[in-house]
Amino acid sequence: MPAWEQVMRAMLGDGADEAIRELQERGFDPDAMAAASGLPNDPAVLQQVFAQVQAMLAASGDDPVNWQMAHDLARQQAAAGGDPSLTAAQTRQVLDALGVAELWLDAATDLPPSTGTPRAWSRAEWVEATLPAWRTLTEPVASSLSSALVGALGGALPDESPEGFGLPGGIEPAQLLRQLGSAVFGMQVGQAAGTLAHEVFGTTDIGLPLLDRPAPALVAANVDAFAEGLDAPVDEVRLFLALREAAATRLFTHVPWLRAHLLSTVEAYARGITIDAEQLEEAVRSVDVTDTAALQQALSGGVFAPHTTAAQKAALERLETALALVEGWVDEVTATAALPHLPHTMALREMIRRRRAAGGPAEQTFANLVGLELRPRRLRDAAALWAQITRDNGATGRDAVWDHPDLLPSTEDLDDPAGYAARRATAVDDAAEVDRALAEILGDDPDAGPTA
């Protein structure tokens, strides 16, 4: 008797024969399925696998992402290859670099330092500190995609699950689908966060603030690994990266609306997620689950990918513009602060620009997961715009653009940085004209002082 059949009989008892017969009547070959899936032949090991799956489903609950799974996998991935605790010397090097960076930035921007305590982190510490932000970022998308999947597959699911099928709590098929989706998202998020822990330098590398209360931090091992093989000394590389981290942290600390603006744009994208139900149902009917090559081809063909609507495209454009503006400001301010002190400033600046534009494997994982690429596609255009604003209005005028979201430059400004000042002046004049018109309608004199 095959191992899978022994486990089914142990789990289902008298219902095993009926379950096996139903599988065969539906065209499924349990032997072929077990072989294709790579399941072990040992009944004890197979029983353990099924027990882990049941525990996984039970732990998913109602969350669109299984966060326990995400956390555990992220920690495992972060520890891959070794992640020793920082030595006292490593911690001192990072904190000294962040301290010097703050002093240099005082001469480059009017935004004051963050009030958060600077940190030197291991990769595991980065995961623990930033995973709550991934929850905020991915849950709206995961929830919408889960609902869309259940809606698309609703007609293909049976009304009730077989009695005693061994699933926790006798859950219904739709609930099972949600829990499976939760587990898949948990694995994806955990894998991506754990991989990012090997790539990032601090808390602001992807353009989004990963801490509720911004504070500068560097992952010491990643900074040292990045510096290996470069012409610049490791101390200079560390100082340059500390400047970038401290500059971004200043921005997210003293522009209180910016974090909410970025996250609300992600949520606006998530609300519009739809799935082509006909295409999905056709895939379910046509794919032979025992044919691993065909299944892989169907999955990679975009059958389960969300369709981008016009509203989502607009949200993505707003997000890309905002990310570019954040990255461009950090790029410009960092270069201004570093040039008088670091001989390799321009080379390091260009290297970071290319790194951010290309993205890494973890960022691509998130892009595949939720359809969002957290990359500033127009970084160079944004840096040119901030440089132009600085030439026209000085550092104070440049930083004042962040005073209100309505002042945020647009894609048109990225297209034509030289024309930004003229367009801004026109917009101010138009706003003043509207104020005068409203004052006339309301019977007020806009030029009159306060009445006694």
Automatic annotation (TrEMBL):
The keyword Cell membrane does not apply. Gene3D superfamilies: Zincin-like metallopeptidase, N-terminal domain. The keyword Repressor does not apply. GO terms for molecular function: metallopeptidase activity. Pfam families: Zincin_2 (PF10103). Keywords: Hydrolase, Metalloprotease, Protease. This is Zinc-dependent metalloprotease. It comes from Cellulomonas fengjieae.
